[in-house]
Amino acid sequence: MIPCIIDKRRIPFANCGFIFIFSTAVFFFLGCSLVEQEEKGVVIVVGSRQITADELKKDMELIGAGMNVLEKHQDQYRNQLAEQLICHYLIMEYGREKGIAIPERELQSALNDIRREYGEDAFKEALLREYVDFDQWKDQFGEQLLVSRILEKVSENIVPPTYGEIEQYFENNPDEFRCPRMVRFRQIVTRTKGEAESLLKRIQNGEDMSELAREYSIAPEANNGGEVGWIARDHLEESMGKVLFSMPQGKLSPVVETPYGYHIFRVLSIRPDTVKELPDVIQQIETRLLHQKREIFLKEWIESLGTHFEVRINQKLLNKLELN
After folding, report:
1. Residues with Cβ within 8 Å of residue 44, at least 6 apart in sequence
2. Are both 239 and 153 inside the same structural domain?
3. Are 124 and 226 members of one domain?
4. Domain check: are 154 and 250 in the same one?
5. Is the pLDDT at 30 greater than 70, yes or no?
6. Where in the sequence is the domain holding 165, given as residue range(s)?
C-alpha cells in the first residue's frame, strides 16, 4: 500500500497528477480514541482496516524517504507520519464504503502511459533503484489513483466563487496585481574593461551593436544580438538595475562594471508600472479562490471521516516502531 503523499522525487514515474493537499496537517491524535491494545501487533485501526507494525513501518518509510531527522525529534516525526497516514486510510475506507474503485483496464492504461513516458529501461531501473518489485509498485500506484479519484468525486459539489467574492479579493489585494516598471535592453558583456571601451567606441562610430554582441559578448543572449527580454529591476543585479532604470529609451550607456564583467547597455523599450484590471485577472482569482475552497472543504471532510469511522491507535506499539 502507498500513502497519497508518495515522494515523487524518489519514484518520479509514479505520477498520477495528484498533489496531496493536506500539507497543512489534519491532526487526529487529539480527536481519536487512543486505545492501547496488544492484539495481533495491530498499531492503527481505521474503520475495518487494521494496520500492523510491519505495514505501518513500510508506509512511513515510503512517505518519509530522504528525510533526515534528529534522534530527539524521532517521536514527533513518527507521530506526524502516522497522522498523515491516517488521512490516507480514512480516504481509502470512504472509497470502500461508497464502492469507488479504479477499473483494472483504467489502471493498466495509466501504467502503460507511464512506461511509454519514461521508457521501459528507465522504468525498470527506477524499480531497481527503489528496491520495489513491479506488483508492489502497481498496488502503490493504484492506491494513488484511487485516492485522487475519491477526492475528485467528493469535491464535485464545491460551489465556485461568486463574482462578488472575486471582486472583493481583487480589491483587498491590489499589490498582487501590480506590474512593476520594466525595461527591455541590449547588452554586450566582456571580461576586460579595455575590450568594452573599444567596443563602445565602435558603436558610437556607427557599427551595429547587435552584430558586435554576437561576435564579442560573453553573455548567454549573445546569439540573440545581446537582446534581453522584459525584466523588472528586482530581477537585476543592483548595479545593473541602477543604470538601466535611470537611462532613457535608446540611449547608450558608458562601460559599467558588475560582478559579471564589463557591460555596455542600450535600453530598447520601457514599460511603466501598471495595475491589471479585474477582467484581465478574473480567471486567475477564480482559480485561486476555488483552490482555497477545496482545501477548506477537504480538510473539514477528512475531519468528518475521523468521526464517521472508528480510529484507534496503539500508542505503545507506535512508540516502539523504529524507522530506517
Report:
1. 50, 51, 56, 82, 85, 86, 89, 311, 312, 313, 314, 318
2. no
3. no
4. no
5. no
6. 1-178+275-324
> Is the model's pLDDT at 254 over the cut of 70?
yes
Examine the domain organization and report whether 13 and 90 are in the same domain: yes
Task: Give bridge partners of residue 52 from the DSSP assignment.
Answer: 42
pLDDT of 28 above 60 = no
Rounded Cα distance between 37 and 310, Å, is 15
CB burial of residue 265 (10 Å; 0-12, 13-18, 19+)? buried
Contacts of 230 (CB under 8 A, 6+ apart): 182, 183, 184, 269, 271
| Domain co-membership, 37 together with 156 | yes
User: Whole-structure pTM over 0.85, yes or no?
Assistant: no
The answer on 113 and 252 residing in a single domain is no
User: With 70 as the cut, is the pLDDT of residue 292 above it?
Assistant: yes
Tens-digit pLDDT profile for residues 148-206? 999 999 999 899 999 999 999 999 999 899 999 999 999 999 999 999 999 999 999 99
Whether residues 185 and 167 share a domain: the answer is: no
Q: 143 and 187 share a domain? A: no
Cell of 185: 535592453
Per-residue pLDDT band at 290 (split at 50, 70, 90): very high
Tell me, what CATH number does 245's domain have? 3.10.50.40
Rounded CA-CA distance 24/26 in Å is 7
Report pLDDT digits (tens) over 50-71.
999 888 888 887 777 556 665 6
